[in-house]
Amino acid sequence: xxxxxxxxxxxxxxxxxxxxxxxxxxxxxxxxxxxxxxxxxxxxxxxxxxxxxxxxxxxxxxxxxxxxxxxxxxxxxxxxxxxxxxxxxxxxxxxxxxxxxxxxxxxxxxxxxxxxxxxxxxxxxxxxxxxxxxxxxxxxxxxxxxxxxxxxxxxxxxxxxxxxxxxxxxxxxxxxxxxxxxxxxxxxxxxxxxxxxxxxxxxxxxxxxxxxxxxxxxxxxxxxxxxxxxxxxxxxxxxxxxxxxxxxxxxxxxxxxxxxxxxxxxxxxxxxxxxxxxxxxxxxxxxxxxxxxxxxxxxxxxxxxxxxxxxxxxxxxxxxxxxxxxxxxxxxxxxxxxxxxxxxxxxxxxxxxxxxxxxxxxxxxxxxxxxxxxxxxxxxxxxxxxxxxxxxxxxxxxxxxxxxxxxxxxxxx
Length: 413
Description:
Layout: E1 5-8, H1 14-25, H2 30-34, H3 36-39, H4 43-46, E2 47-52, E3 55-69, E4 72-84, H5 93-109, E5 113-116, H6 121-125, E6 130-131, E7 136-140, E8 158-163, H7 168-180, E9 184-188, H8 191-198, E10 208-213, E11 219-228, E12 235-247, H9 250-261, E13 266-273, H10 279-282, E14 290-292, E15 300-303, H11 306-312, E16 324-329, E17 338-345, E18 348-353, E19 361-364, H12 365-373, H13 378-383, E20 388-389, H14 394-400
Parallel strand pairs: 4-5, 12-13, 16-19
Antiparallel strand pairs: 1-2, 2-3, 3-4, 3-9, 5-15, 6-15, 7-13, 7-14, 8-10, 10-11, 11-12, 16-17, 17-18, 19-20
């Protein structure tokens, strides 16, 4: 592996960064990508490049985002635009750059975790990221999404349907936040994310939004969706693709599913959804649905700073008293590697280096990430050999890593 200079992107190099991003991923135009600087990120703070002479051979962008994990906002870096010029591929440049980026995220950005959507899973798995959710894609004819007759109905409620606009950020964000906060994996979306990604107000075709208002006029649910394909009577290639459907009460789910299922001229409906909502219990006939796990759309999580991440965990007093000496293996981030004393003090979790303690439990950094979001329970991790723990320490770990909901994120970046 050649020695490269790894440094922040200089402001006068943004055009070169954009060119490599567009060449590698296509999608958004170079002009749209160039507009991200100043709006979404700072070149010198949020982008690292690996340089050989004056040539950028590899690059990574780090969005500063918050991620909700069981009621707590975790400062996190969202990695995107990870690319290496094809002439220098498979020389370890991306791996070398990402190792430097982990130290940058901890020391400069001050984040506790890092998330991404992998195009090359083995690369990130080898650097300590782990799959952090088990979402499914539900597809079927519109009639398959008719709500269960057991869901309550609110008489006098109404749905307002229209193309999404930039003003919808202020309308939807409070409802989204209330829904997302107690869950695991949902982003604390900055405004640019709402406008550009969720509502697509800068795209040629913005999303449609269906707003559910209760009888008293209070907004209590919404669905964001795209309409794809021509509609000249029912055609199998036409599709209503649900980006997000959420409500603060069961009556809202009934109304919004009724609205989706009423699109009978469309060939099928697609809903990408997590297990944090029991979708199969919300529809009248789940046998009409097909379910598929598309792992490429699942987010991966890495713990960047172990003590900070543990101390941020939701404050729930453990059933049994006592501390746990947790030995963590992290071959990439030496500041995480070693034994940590984890316990409960003054209403919060503490995590302190304990190099001289005999471990009560042992795991690697990937397993730690899956426990943090609840993708694996402590019991499951023990069953598959990912965690070794003494019986008298298991209760503390189970409380530390307990979550109210299974993990999911409707977003990608």
